[in-house]
Amino acid sequence: MSEQPDSTQPDPGPVEADTGPDTAIHTENDNGTDAAIDTLDVAVAELRPALEAILMVSDEPLGTVRLASVVGHPVEDVETALQALAGEYAEQRRGFELRNVGGGWRYYTRDEYAAVVEGFVLDGQQARLTQAALETLAVVAYKQPVSRARVSAIRGVNVDGVMRTLLTRGLVEEAGQDHETGANLYRTTGYFLERIGVTSIDELPELAPYLPDMEDFEDELAEMVSTPTPEPEAQPETAPEHGHPSPHSGDGTEPDGGTEPS
After folding, report:
1. One digit per residue, pLDDT tens: the chain, 262 residues?
2. For 58, how many CA atoms within 13 A lie in the half-sphere containing its CB?
3. Which of 176, 174, 175, 186 is CA-nearest to residue 150?
4. What is the 3-state secondary structure (H, E, C) of 128-189?
5. Half-sphere exposure (CA, 13 Å, Cβ side) for 49?
6. C-alpha triplet 26, 31, 148: angle, nearest 5°
7. Which candidate, 75, 88, 22, places its Cα nearest to that of 47?
8. What is the DSSP letter of 216?
9. pTM of this prediction?
10. In whole angstroms, what is the distance from residue 36 CA to residue 75 CA?
11. Which CATH architecture has domain 22-111?
């Protein structure tokens, strides 16, 4: 009889970690557990310009680890570059500055130019607010302090652009961060109260008189549940009058949009 080959395989030994193009930065969470943040060995862009571009379009502070995962540089290099940029802006006395606030980096206008910015925001904005802006402002007024995501959930649409308009107009302002999610919170300003002619949020009219009664909703739901849905009646098949079928016969949309000819 022929010998059967040995089916056992030698132990390959310890497997080395993958050193391909995709690696991960390991950080420690607040609870002491290890978390991996995806990044790249090869930087996707020059570090400082890439950080400036990302921070310019961000609506909220960004952490160092998050920035490192986007630009593809080590966290230590990103932290050093951010500190260098902040010092560079301060030395050159730019109209803006880079601050590390609430665990994240963000651009802010410099304090000494507040009067110029305020004049532009308050005096140079005379156009009327759109219906979407008014609805968003009402949600902030009655739910403040509230996050942008919560306002979007209530209205059912994205409100990023509208919130930027309200911030620019000086009608809403940042009111800290949510302790659970870290999201920025927003509230109305004193300028908002001045524009609507009240001295306090407590003077806003109550919403209850303008909302439908719950009894109306319950009656409507009960009626919908109790009313059976009628089944469509079967249509008898009819033979075409001519030998050839009409090109408009059968299911579908009529070429004229379904309207009756006059």
Report:
1. 445 545 444 554 444 444 344 444 444 454 444 444 454 444 556 899 999 999 998 878 899 999 999 999 999 999 999 999 999 999 999 999 999 987 899 999 998 998 888 887 766 556 678 888 999 999 999 999 999 999 999 988 999 889 998 998 889 999 988 888 888 999 999 889 888 888 888 888 887 665 555 565 566 666 766 666 666 566 665 555 554 444 444 443 333 333 333 3
2. 21
3. 186
4. CCCHHHHHHHHHHHHHCCEEHHHHHHHHCCCCHHHHHHHHHCCCEEEEEECCCCCCEEEEEC
5. 4
6. 90
7. 75
8. H
9. 0.39
10. 12
11. Orthogonal Bundle (1.10)
Determine the Cα–Cα distance for residues 67 and 100; give it in Å rounded to an integer.
Answer: 13
- Report the 10 Å Cβ neighbour count for 83: 13
CATH for the 125-208 domain, from 3.40.50.720, 1.10.10.10, 3.40.50.300, 3.20.20.30: 1.10.10.10
As annotated, the residues of the chain forming the CATH 1.10.10.10 domain(s) are: 22-111, 125-208
Phi first, then psi: what are they for 186, rounded to 5°?
A: -130, 150
